[in-house]
Amino acid sequence: MEKEYPLQQGMQIDKMEEECGVFGIYDPNGSNDVATLSYLGLHALQHRGQESAGISVNHKGKFKIHKGMGLVNNIFDEEILAGLSGEIAIGHVRYSTTGSSLLVNAQPLLTNSIKGDLAIAHNGNLVNSSEIRLNLEKQGSIFHSTLDTEVIAHLVARSFKDDINEALMHSLQQVKGAYSLVAMTKDTLVAARDPHGFRPLSLGKLGDAYVVASETCAFDIIGAKLVRDIKPGEMIIINKDGVTSRFYSEERPSRFCIFEFIYFARPDSVIGGQNVHLARKEMGRQLAREMDVEADIVVPVPSSGISAAIGFAEESGISYEKGILRNRYVGRTFIQPTQEIRDLKVRVKLNPIREIVEGKRVVLIDDSIVRGTTSKQIIRMMREAGASEIHFAISSPPVIESCYYGLDTSRRQELIAAHNSIEEIANYIGADSLTYLSIEGLLNSIKAEDFEYCTACFNGDYPIGRGTDKYALEE
Prior knowledge:
Shape: elongated
GO biological process, one term: purine nucleobase biosynthetic process
Helix content: 25-40%
CATH architecture of the largest domain: 4-Layer Sandwich
GO molecular function: 4 iron, 4 sulfur cluster binding; amidophosphoribosyltransferase activity; magnesium ion binding
Structural class: alpha+beta
Number of helices: 17
CATH class of the largest domain: Alpha Beta
Enzyme class: transferase
Cofactor: Mg(2+); [4Fe-4S] cluster
Oligomer: single chain
Strand order of the largest sheet: 4-3-5-2-11-10-12
CATH topology of the largest domain: Glutamine Phosphoribosylpyrophosphate, subunit 1, domain 1
CATH superfamily of the largest domain: Aminohydrolase, N-terminal nucleophile (Ntn) domain
Radius of gyration: 23 Å
Largest sheet: 7 strands, antiparallel
Pathway: Purine metabolism; IMP biosynthesis via de novo pathway; N(1)-(5-phospho-D-ribosyl)glycinamide from 5-phospho-alpha-D-ribose 1-diphosphate: step 1/2
Low-confidence stretches: 1-12, 332-337, 468-475
Mean pLDDT: 88
Number of strands: 26
């Protein structure tokens, strides 16, 4: 009997989802419109989060903030941006898990303590935030959100360090997890990465101004130049004295999230000296080397499978075709109560081109399978469009474990590869064959400098444990 893996309420796409993207700019001369540049930077990072966005600016020590629910271009307009003048700014786009899509959880957070004003925005997940939060509440702290970011803000306020930058560094020494953050004080822009460097964060320059962002694509849109990646355990302090680098943690093995290269990062971003699109092309080439198949065309699942499909076609010599059209004007859709309507939501976004796939043996390329629900619907549509064979090829290994470091994955019991063989998965999604890229092939495809990777979702090797947050208590 065919197994059913129902689509989880609130999950529209059968993918892992990123938590957030961050941006910051320090312009000592006030020659740039920092709010508009932050808006553009966040627009470039929109793929990292679509639930909410916000920008906080600092004009001569006075803070202003504007944030809201939805997409960046729906939250900000010219009038709002004109009212956000200043010399320093930080911004944030957020993806939230089910049940926490609330304005109170939008970032940046703006707090005040005896140490001064602090605006802070964060990307990732702290595995010990529940424990710290409980201890802080016992000491009288009152929380207004469910964000890990607010935990850090309370630690800063309670730190015995008088200087706010030192207090922030002291606070980061107490938390454990995967994060990149930007913060703003009365005269300083701060950026930091966790000691293992799970999440990306880069430093750039725009004339006399310095910028930081989750991805370099945010630099490209404003004309900034990449200086370097911020290092694991490093805190960058940018003020009138220039850029100061401090390390708040002893050196530890890097554990960069490999899904940034597989899926999350934009193809035009550069991470560790490696262009993401070229890395994905190499994954496709390696997949072709590992896969023995006779086919007529290679078709990507747009847009996540495009780069790998190009590489696969080049390596295999099989013709590359855009056999599925993606409707670029479709925004987020809401889950409807019947499976039939859910199926139509996929059809609105993706539509096979019959004239290309009919009668063809197709190698269908995508970057990952999480629950298998969307893959099953796409393959069914390809069959209906007349494809004679469908060989599904995935440019990453099977996802068998949940992530606790800032990615929104299903609980383990919902991960199709955690409980089924490759043959069983192929049968469920309706493919003639299913091939995953090996872990070794994946690692060999990425040429980023000086990186080691977190591959816990593929092999259960959790570098800093599971913690007590998110799905850990539900399994």
